[in-house]
Specification:
single chain, alpha/beta, Aspartate Aminotransferase, domain 2, Aspartate Aminotransferase, domain 1, five-stranded mixed sheet, globular
Amino acid sequence: MKLETLVIHAGQHPDPVSGAVMTPIVLSSTFAQAGPGHHKGYDYSRSGNPTRNTLEACGAALEGAAHGLAFASGCAATTTVLHTLRPGDHVLCSDDVYGGTFRILDKVMKPMGITATFVDMSDLARTAAALRPETKLVWLETPSNPMLKVADIEAVCALATKHGAVSVVDNTFATPVIQRPLALGATAVVHSSTKYLNGHSDVVGGFVMTRDAAFAERLRFLQNAIGAVPSPFDCYLVLRGLKTLHVRVERHAQNAAKIATWLRDHRDVARVYYPGLTDHPQYAIAKKQMALPGGMISFVLRGGATGTVAERSQRFLSKLAVFTCAESLGGVESLIELPAVMTHASVPAETRAALGIDDGLIRISVGIESVDDLIADLAQAFDASR
């Protein structure tokens, strides 16, 4: 089946009791057993829940995986994957990565004896050179957050496989509508289902999908043991959101492509980062592995007549009416933020500067509103903030 059909039907069947077309929300924390150890597949909701299992089956199908595991947040999914490692192990990670991922590696895993090196994975030679004998996991985020660098998934995962390391791709920005990393050699895919998978800014959730049965078994044990699982109601909401994923992502990308082109030609914009623009450094790789360039754009604002670039950035965001200044992304509404003081504040200032995450960098999550209204809102904010 094609993805447009899978988002609506995968893992979902009419309820055998009532015939309900939509998956019921099973809120029970515990399940009756005919006798000790004799149950119908469920005993305690942390270990398994019918609503969650339906979501997991659907999510796995979308990424072409055999196994899907849902979590209470994207960070919970990330942390559980990293708990497959042992003290002394090393992680090779994209340098331009979500601030929460950086924080987990730097502040949570490092004190436990698991170290990480951050490298520009759009540079394959540098990536290969950064591998160590103790490297057990390669963490790739593409397009990256917030600089929208694109790495060659197939090439990076091949390096990891040759080295004997697990390769994990954070596919949150792209979604399975745009790219499917497992088909390109990744061991596992991670999502913050808070974002595009749910798509309505009303759920916090995470996902891991894999074809590797042994890796899935280890993750399933950790999922139950650590217990960072989503509620049945949250699972229901993500399932509901998934049904429109394909049409939403197409509209996000359509709007973003028009806005990126408009921003590139605007006199108040110094630079635009968007994989769909021909001047993007990894445009050719993006065309090869991405069906669409996505709904995320970052750009650098020029300074105004008065004050610093940082001050103008603050004024610019305060003048917007349709865009909402907020963290997160992937919802139907358009969001805008300053990564240096919001999503990436946990990244050290010197690291942000080296990556280009300065006070004038603005990241937008383009929604599915009228693109004409979005451009008009940006235009008036540019004028009002000069």
